[in-house]
Amino acid sequence: MIEYFLLILAIPLGIALAKTTSDEKNIYTKPQYFPLFIKILAILIAIFASQNKQITLTLTFLLITTYIWYKI
Asked: What is the mean pLDDT of residues 11-24?
């Protein structure tokens, strides 16, 4: 149960990271940075979904944080 609560904390973390690095946004929004990383994380989540719950939750946390950071 607590692991799902930690996934919810990924959203405020992504918002905080976006506000902290707002002056570098033109650098990390280029196609070779976050969009590629988000795709790789999504593929890894699909691979590990049936194998290991802890790895899947960790990758999901990273995916949510990175996605929110990229979109804001």
From this structure: 90
